[in-house]
Amino acid sequence: MQRDKQQQILEDKKDLNRFGYAQELLRDMGGFSNFAISFSIISILTGAVSLYGHGLTYGGPGMMGFGWTIVALFVLLIAASMAELASAIPTAGALYHWAAILANKRWGWYTAWINLIGQIGIVAGIDYSFALFADPLLAGTFGYTSTETTTLVLFGITLLLHGVFNHIGIRLVARLNDFSAWYHIGVVVILVGSLAFFSRHELQPLDYLFQVGQTFSDKPYALAFLIGLLQAQWTFTGYDASAHTIEETINPRVRAAWGIFSSVAFSFIFGFVMLAFVTLSIKDAAAASGAENAFIYVISEALGGTFGTAVLWLVTFAMWFCGLSSVTSFSRMLYAFSRDKGIPWSRHWAQISVRYRTPAKAIWLVVILSFALALFDYILKRINPDTSYTTLAFLTAVSVVGLYVAYGIPLYLKLRAEAKGLFRPEHYGPWNLGTWSKPINVISLIWIVFISIVMVIPPNQNAGFALIGMFLLLLVMDLAYYRRHFPGPQAALDTSEEEIKRQESRFEK
Q1: How far apart are CA 4 and CA 200, in angstroms?
Q2: Which is deepest, 245, 376, 415, 440, by most CB within 10 Å?
Q3: Which residues cross the membrane (predicted)?
Q4: Rounded distance, CA 163 to CA 158, Å?
Q5: All domains of the chain, ordered by start, with CATH?
Q6: How many other C-beta atoms can be found within 10 angstroms of the C-beta atom of residue 71?
Q7: What tens digit of pLDDT does each residue of 158-205 get?
Q8: Any idea what DSSP says for residue 204?
Q9: Do 265 and 83 contact (CB within 8 A), yes or no?
């Protein structure tokens, strides 16, 4: 068995070398670990829970039955399309490399930067969600008042811890990711079982889950329902992590592809069951919607003080694991892009710790950028305290649009390359959609365009303004420097065999 594993690792290294890259990262992740990192980042106990009040306020209980299902079905198509490309082009650059290889280096450069914007938003959003839940729970225990300032401080401490754990090594993080996947499933089972058997009042009838027409916002229901989709759409982000860790995965053409698709499929199923029981436990939807934290309100009302608090702590720790996985994914994407000299001071972010075999400097840059985004919003609110949007809605909308636009670019370029005869059946990997590939890609693109518009309509227009500002900055950077000086991943294809061996020799014992 060990000999087979070593043989597969050797084949994977040769495969990576054919793309022009040295095997610098430690290839030690199995199929479950690869699935677990995406499943943990999707984290139904983070997205669906932290934005539960957002979904309930705008779409009412029907958001949990119809909204969750509609979004999940479209995301499954997007995940299948991305899994197909991961199987064909198994490098840690993922979306960025796919775009560059299917078109050219400038497409790749923009894809990488847009993905980077989305990754900043998702890391910040996840760890801020943890702080939003943990801070009031800690305040109740230690007797202080939870404020936006205390939440920001706890958010910063959480980021620091995730940076330390990721710096130490992929083996530890991989084991924690494995545990996180089982932990998420276990907590969902505990939460559902508790609500089913120990709720202090009767559950609502099943059709309550699909009740539409009720909104607690000032918007017409159709528009409010669309705004409420942010809850489900943000939950289903980050599953590209299986592709970003592809150079650390054994037999990645198969395992990483399944990791992308299966993480979405299992999140859909477990998330639906969890949301169903939470929503059926609502006694007063208007009171829940008006509460400072709708999810905490519903669980506390249904399960009572001590028991409810214990369950809420279990949910909150799941968010911590989600943030840990997200820092892993983002740092690998940043490392891969820096390796190709795509960002300022690239040589620093592309450095690998010889001791830990992790992109140490990239990890800490992730921590700094994620904190800076939340700090920016915090300062804006100090300047204009009458703003109606929440910090979490701002962070999550930025991440949804940034990530999904980055997801969509290589899908569009693949369709264009196929139409030109540049991407043919022999270019597919072992995991592919066959004759269903083109229609699934087209439907995926339509949904990405639609949802990207929905995510920045009022009251979340500030996220749209922030994204426009970021995209304009990218345009200036490109025209001023990178259009002429960015070598692109194709440059790595010219890397000599001797140079690849020299890079790999630094990590040989």
Answers
A1: 55
A2: 245
A3: 35-53, 65-86, 107-131, 151-174, 181-201, 221-239, 260-282, 294-323, 362-380, 392-413, 440-457, 463-482
A4: 9
A5: 28-487 (1.20.1740.10)
A6: 22
A7: 999 999 999 987 677 778 878 988 999 999 999 999 999 998 889 999
A8: P
A9: no
